[in-house]
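[Discussion] Sanity-checking designs against the backbone

I'm trying to build intuition for which residues belong where. Below is a structure token string of 292 positions. I'd appreciate it if someone posts a full sequence so I can compare it with mine line by line.
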């Protein structure tokens, strides 16, 4: 159903004279934001390894209620341009924030670059009969967008959540790293060399239950050392790495099937932002990188 405006709409928007785009740039996140006077902020955020997202932040939660139609509206000085419908948005999403899907955030960026104004139109504002309009201005956008794109081009390929817990798998009795494992470890090394808050890397080698216990302990040691050696060759400082090996002691699943044994032939890599000593027991909640 198409939103029909009431006779009077309460509008929140930056004027031409005070529209300002702000850039926050780092290898981890790029933010492009605009202050909306008396309302809050409009923010595009692109985190490393993730698609871009957009959200509205309101100073008061009560300002965001019900549903809204998101349009890319043409400015008043371009009366011949048609408005572009983008999405229907639920305003009742959280404490003070309204999120827009990534695909719609991309449409909003394109619309801003073309000079349109992404606008949230809601039929009700607070408890009044007036409708609500929250508008993101495209004034001064193109220069800010160029800076934002420069930031995005420099983002790391992954974020901390994506690599904080990783498992690489091995063939039966094998210690060689697969190409997929090397690619994953390359990502880890790139990230660690940039994020100075990462202080420790715990590397834990494991085997399945096939073979003798002492042989499996040695095999798990050689697997863990293969991962350690690779990271050190990529420039990760040795004093950050804690290398441990456990043989068959800590299976993630039973060893009754070939599929389960393949999951147990692994080295786990855990990145920590605080140094800790948890003894010989590895943490078994890695991202399964499915490297074999």
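Best answer:
Here's mine. Compare freely.
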């Amino acid at each position: 159903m198409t939103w029909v405006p009431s006779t009077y709409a309460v509008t929140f928007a930056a004027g031409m004279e005070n529209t300002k785009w702000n850039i926050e740039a780092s290898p981890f996140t790029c933010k492009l934001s605009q202050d909306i006077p008396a309302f809050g902020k409009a923010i595009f955020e692109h985190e490393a390894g993730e698609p871009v997202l957009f959200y509205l932040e309101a100073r008061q939660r009560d300002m965001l209620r019900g549903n809204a139609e998101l349009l890319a509206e043409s400015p008043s000085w371009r009366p011949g341009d048609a408005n572009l419908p983008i999405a229907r948005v639920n305003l009742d999403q959280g404490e003070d924030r309204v999120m827009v899907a990534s695909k719609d955030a991309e449409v909003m960026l394109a619309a801003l670059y073309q000079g349109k104004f992404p606008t949230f139109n809601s039929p009700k504002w607070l408890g009044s009969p007036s409708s609500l309009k929250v508008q993101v201005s495209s004034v001064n956008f193109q220069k800010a967008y160029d800076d934002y794109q420069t930031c995005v081009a420099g983002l790391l390929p992954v974020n901390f959540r994506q690599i904080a817990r990783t498992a690489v798998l091995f063939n039966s009795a094998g210690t060689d790293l697969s190409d997929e494992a090397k690619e994953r470890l390359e990502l880890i090394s790139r990230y660690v060399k940039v994020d100075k808050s990462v202080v420790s890397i715990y590397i834990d080698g494991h085997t399945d239950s096939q073979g003798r216990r002492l042989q499996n302990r040695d095999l798990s040691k050689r697997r863990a050392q293969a991962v350690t050696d690779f990271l050190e060759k990529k420039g990760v400082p040795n004093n950050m790495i804690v290398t441990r090996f456990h043989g068959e002691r800590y299976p993630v699943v039973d060893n009754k099937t070939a599929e389960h044994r393949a999951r147990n032939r692994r080295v786990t890599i855990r990145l920590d932002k605080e140094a800790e000593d948890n003894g010989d027991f590895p943490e078994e909640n890695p991202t399964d990188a499915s490297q074999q």
